[in-house]
Amino acid sequence: MAEPVAVLTKRFEQPDAHTLDGYLRTGGYAALRQALDADPADLRQMVKDSGLRGRGGAGFPAGVKWGFVPQDTGKPIYLVVNADEGEPGTFKDRELMERDPHQLLEGMLISGRALNCRRSFIFIRGEYLWPGIRLEQAIGEAYRDGYLGRDVLGSGFDFDVTLHYAAGAYICGEETALLDALEGRRGQPRLRPPFPAVAGLYAAPTVVNNVETIANVPHIVEHGVAWYRSMGTERSPGPKLFSVSGEVKRPGNYEWPLGTPAREIIEVSCGGMLDGRELKFWAPGGSSTPLLTANHIDIPMDFDAIAAEGSLLGTAAMMMYSDRTSVVDAVLNWTRFYEHESCGKCTPCREGTFWLAQILERIMHGHGRIEDLQTMDDACDQIFGRSFCALGDGATSPIKSSLKYFRDEYEYLIEHGRLPDHIDPHAGVVTDNSGRHRPGQLVRA
Length: 445
Ligand SMILES: Cc1cc2nc3c(=O)[nH]c(=O)nc-3n(C[C@H](O)[C@H](O)[C@H](O)COP(=O)(O)O)c2cc1C
Known about the structure:
Helix content is 41%, strand content 13%. It is an alpha/beta fold.
């Protein structure tokens, strides 16, 4: 049995952890002092050796990405922290920023030092007012006491942070759309290459990393690579926040080593399913990751093991649903989201998400035709891999996977024009970005 860990969350229960005093009292900024004495190239090597993989969804190794940044272009190097957190079901970055904002700032300072970067940005979801306030306070304290700004702690290193509130679009979490939005334009994805590491913000080398990725950095520097790799698996090392929502007793963020079986997280941290309900389907990493079933509950939650089962670890936002919930209804709900959030730049995603939502709506309201299932399958194949960015791919995940595992429920709906009796249209429980239950969200006529 794995044990929960308290690395990123170690100060979560400390009431004043969000203040500079509270952070310093519990060893905060010790890693920064180490980093200011270290050679930037050694810091980059350390992060590479740690095997830290991006926590924003794709799991790309952070140290490898940092290695793509050319150090000799004469242009400034930028660090952009992606705090847009728009993936349905995901609410981990919010808690990291709310409860321990200095941990993120320390991670940014060390990453900045490693990358020879002096200017950084936090691109925060516009609705995240409270985490934003906490960050503003922390940034103010850090400037006041010499942790940010010119000559950080007398080291000769200059480092600035700008907090930028996003205007509220899922697409702006996609890193190149994010950069366009940060530059003041409409957020739409850019053609790649060039990748941001080479030509990103203002066409200068830019590292875009997720909040949780950067929050790992102080711990790697302070405790070393071997310690970091003692958690998790060979190819997915370190601790991970799992945002669990849906029909479980205690939804919330829980920190476990990567590679912990989903069952342990659900049983130990969440107290199991709500009212003893039976697990029917779940998304392992947000709504863009293909659905899994009760048969997959013992899979280790790491990037490779989940991929081997045909899904993705994504943001590790585990959305759990019972046999009382209609998978078709849940899929319709997510598909409407993708239809609404598709930026319209490319045809497969813009048109495809619209038509998929229309068909699902028809099926859900009892007017489906059996040919609709093949049409949806074909439409997904025309979107996947043909869209300009991964939003389109993600939109196909719930549909393709539900057709694979729950085709019988679609067929029942089409044949009978209504849901099977054991499905309670009021059972559907989704969580908003606070992780709190919002019962009845999936209810429809
Ligand atoms: C539609 C879309 C939305 C995304 N939203 C986010 C987001 O809100 N936060 C995030 O960190 N990454 C998001 N990503 C992933 C980013 O493009 C990028 O991979 C990530 O910020 C890199 O950081 P990491 O390597 O530390 O994970 C999104 C990707 C897509 C395609």
